[in-house]
Amino acid sequence: MADVGVDYDYLYTIKRDLKTVRSEFKDCSAHQDDMRNQYGSLSVSGAMEQFADNWDDHRKELLTSIEKVGKLVEQSIEGFQKLDQDLADANKKKKKG
After folding, report:
1. Measured between alpha carbons, how far is 64 from 74 in angstroms, rounded to an integer?
2. How far apart are the first and last CA of the chain?
3. What is the pLDDT at residue 65?
4. What is 13-53 written as a DSSP string?
5. In this predicted model, what pLDDT tens digit does every residue of 44-69 receive, in sequence order?
6. Is residue 76 within 8 Å of 25, Cβ to Cβ?
7. 8-27 and 42-96 helices cross at what angle (nearest 10)?
């Protein structure tokens, strides 16, 4: 039987980092509104507005993907922890029997 090693610290780091990225993506739209008056030219302002709107659409898609990956990481952690516990319990029963 092959041994399986799980780096829980790494999985928790990924989980934390995904939460950070998700938070940054959610909050970045506020910065776009702050910059509108700084562009000067109407054509630059219009182009930036169009870019910001496009970015908002893609940012929402990215947020959805980030959330899905975060859930998968969480499920992986929970699954490996349950497997660890199940194997430990089975080993205890084996030693008693």
Report:
1. 15
2. 21
3. 94
4. HHHHHHHHHHHHHHHTHHHHHHHGGG--SHHHHHHHHHHHH
5. 777 877 887 788 788 888 999 999 99
6. no
7. 160
Q: How far apart are CA 57 and CA 72, in angstroms?
A: 23
48 CB burial (10 A radius; 0-12, 13-18, 19+): middle
Which residue type does 67 have? E
The structure tokens 């990924």 sit at: 14
User: Are the C-beta atoms of residues 18 and 73 closer than 8 Å to each other?
Assistant: yes
Q: Tell which residue, 66, 55, 65, 54, has the closest CA to residue 22.
A: 66
Enter the tokens of residue 24. Answer: 């940054």
Q: For residue 1, is pLDDT > 60? A: no
8 A C-beta contact, residue 87 and residue 42:
no
Q: Which pair of structure tokens corresponds to residue 10? A: 């790494």
